[in-house]
Automatic annotation (TrEMBL):
Residues 110-214 form the Protein arginine N-methyltransferase domain. SUPFAM superfamilies: S-adenosyl-L-methionine-dependent methyltransferases. It comes from the Eukaryota. Keywords: Methyltransferase, S-adenosyl-L-methionine, Transferase. The keyword Ligase does not apply. Pfam families: PRMT_C. GO terms for molecular function: histone methyltransferase activity; protein-arginine N-methyltransferase activity. GO terms for biological process: methylation. It comes from Noctiluca scintillans (Sea sparkle). This is Protein arginine N-methyltransferase domain-containing protein.
């Protein structure tokens, strides 16, 4: 209603209006993109405008089964961190997917285990027919490659006339289509981690329950049996259809795949510790408050310091113990 109130008086005598958005979330549904486009269309049409052009005209959200795991980050073994990938969120959580660059992270191994399926799509030329209420459906993802599925990759495709743009990750195109020597798309895709890990073989079908809310986001829960359940210390709410919630934010996953960030921290910690050792003439004591999985504390320990790691979140604390061990 606020959009209509502002827009309609401005367009009383306009014959042709182009409605354009350059803002797209990683899952295409966040940030109220779809309802804003719909509201703009309704406001322009109500003003009596003869022609409306949408850029883009059509957007679609795609999904493919994915194996995604971390091995080492600048020499540190962070394989225990993969346990965090064994969790989706429940209906009370803030996030259901995590923004990740699937194409250009040397410390993350990703493999698409099957072809993509379209979860949903929106034709803005038919905005009056778009429902903004929640929809739930079963999504069946076929498997064409053997692996251990622990996630679903999400990306969007936008079309305006004959022009098409997509954030499709290169791992979805198969090894033959991927460039040699690393590198890749700088766009972030959305990754929806499942609440367990499933051994899949060619010909298998992965079933997920998908909840689509155009005014907010998309979330899903695997319906097929898991080969490996989430760790016992990842406690899932008993009364929710959407499984375990983790008290961590998307930037934790980004930090655990950001090699440049860790190298800058390493250089800074080494400089500060060595300087303090020269000043004091003895071993330096370091407190890492809010240590996460403990990487920065381990960098300080490698410089010969006495380190105390403190973490308030129980699950992160357990992860820190596993990584440090």
């Amino acid at each position: 209603e606020a959009v209509k109130k502002v827009v309609m008086p401005m367009l009383r005598k306009v014959k042709h209006v182009a409605i354009l958005t350059e803002l797209f979330a990683h899952d295409m549904l966040s940030n109220a993109i779809v309802p804003t486009m719909v509201a703009m269309h309704q406001a322009v049409k109500a003003s009596g405008c003869a022609k409306i052009t949408h850029i883009p005209e059509v957007i679609e959200l795609h999904a493919a089964p994915l194996e995604c795991r971390s091995e080492k980050l600048d020499g540190f073994d962070i394989r225990p961190f993969n346990a965090f990938r064994h969790s989706t969120s429940n209906e009370k959580a803030d996030f259901w997917w995590w923004p990740v660059r699937l194409d250009n992270q040397p410390c993350v191994e990703t493999a698409a285990l099957g072809p993509p399926e379209t979860i949903c799509g929106f034709d803005f030329n038919r905005s009056t027919e778009i429902s903004l209420s929640e929809h739930r459906r079963t999504l069946k993802l076929g498997v064409t490659k053997r692996g251990r599925c622990n996630a679903v990759a999400l990306w969007w495709t936008a079309r305006a006339g004959v022009v098409e743009f997509s954030t499709r990750p290169r791992c979805a195109d198969g090894p033959a289509q991927q460039p040699k020597g690393g590198g890749g798309c700088e766009w972030k895709q959305a990754v929806h981690y499942l609440a367990g890990e499933t051994a899949v073989f060619v010909g298998d079908t992965l079933e997920c329950l998908v909840s689509i809310t155009p005014c907010f986001t998309v979330r899903m829960m695997q319906q097929s049996p898991f080969s490996v359940q989430a760790p016992l210390w990842v406690e899932a709410p008993q009364l929710s259809k959407f499984s375990a919630t983790l008290p961590i934010l998307p930037y934790h996953f980004l930090m655990m795949t950001d090699l440049e960030r860790l190298r800058l921290y390493r250089e800074s910690i080494q400089f500060a510790v060595r300087k303090k050792q020269r000043e004091l003439g003895r071993r330096v004591r370091v407190l890492d408050a809010g240590c996460g999985i403990g990487l920065l504390g381990m960098i300080a320990a490698l410089e010969g310091t006495d380190v105390w790691l403190c973490e308030a979140v129980p699950m992160m604390r357990q992860m820190c113990r596993d990584v440090v061990a």
